[in-house]
Fold this sequence. Notes:
globular, 11-stranded mixed beta sheet, two-stranded antiparallel sheet
Amino acid sequence: xxxxxxxxxxxxxxxxxxxxxxxxxxxxxxxxxxxxxxxxxxxxxxxxxxxxxxxxxxxxxxxxxxxxxxxxxxxxxxxxxxxxxxxxxxxxxxxxxxxxxxxxxxxxxxxxxxxxxxxxxxxxxxxxxxxxxxxxxxxxxxxxxxxxxxxxxxxxxxxxxxxxxxxxxxxxxxxxxxxxxxxxxxxxxxxxxxxxxxxxxxxxxxxxxxxxxxxxxxxxxxxxxxxxxxxxxxxxxxxxxxxxxxxxxxxxxxxxxxxxxxxxxxxxxxxxxxxxxxxxxxxxxxxxxxxxxxxxxxxxxxxxxxxxxxxxxxxxxxxxxxxxxxxxxxxxxxxxxxxxxxxxxxxxxxxxxxxxxxxxxxxxxxxxxxxxxxxxxxxxxxxxxxxxxxxxxxxxxxxxxxxxxxxxxxxxxxxxxxxxxxxxxxxxxxxxxxxxxxxxxxxxxxxxxxxxxxxxxxxxxxxxxxxxxxxxxxx
Length: 475
């Protein structure tokens, strides 16, 4: 009896421990693997998060044509097969959970997710949730409200999920979109961006299902001068909570490379974001991985003005960040129920009661930056306060990733400055993909630059576009 009681008490203690032991082990391993240059006070990897995850080889096919496209030439020669998708996602997510702990954000990504049958799409999201992941479906956004309903509602019309996340990719480099197959300007896509967001507003109104929407856009010399207007338009729509840009790289299908993508770097894109917002957008407070790969500004809108959650030029907010990483790093905020989260935070405060003072001082500082209590209260009453994150992801050229990765596999550090930079960026990558068949976690740039071509060739044989059937009894 006492043994059972002790075992029960142990389970309760672990359940309400601020940081799950599996998460702590994964964080420690992630921090240890980071290059010394990435271990900065702003770094989240290994201190609060293990990084993002993504699926691969689960549905490579897409029905739009993009220039550039990070998929290999064989991707569109692979049939979309729901059974294959679900089997692969199950294997990949099981492996991710075993290596990276019970909680992470994961992208349901491949070719175009809406080519999956709605029930398969929903089943894929459920598998990811079953493994403690917060899934986000990556799409070109060219599907209708009926498809969205079929994904989130079951056969009886009941909600399968209380909340869904989608990242929609819109830019004029994409060909084949319904209603506008060859856009000439980014502005021509504004109604389509708005229509996509409005579907989820309708979903909330009709079915009570909340959503988180991200807007993605590839940037090349052909559309860099239009980024500022896109930022202003998308932020002004109100439906998106993230605006993300990806400067193009020489990776994927070589037939779709056009121009010199190296002209566009993170700083160039960030200048356009600030132009679109008509204000500086600070990003130094929080870092995900290598700053040459990722730049992220976490914040919120109050009316038409953006504010950062942390301004580390202010001592009180800089110390708040440090206190957070020290005492709350690794706490599962998004995946814990209200009571569980309260008990976890209570345990933190028992050991660190000064945390209440830290939180109050931070809140007071943020309130002052927002214009004071009256300004914020009026904005809240007008429903003009909402989250808004700006992101730039800069991918790497395949010609550098392949040799750098091979050297890393061989345990060698390159003496070539370009390859050494590539190795450091790969080691600090915030976006991992699982290969349970080899026991490896690989950076996304390695997946697309090195592994995708061979993987899609194999999938082309496994899942050909045309399926031949043997004649039946009547020939």
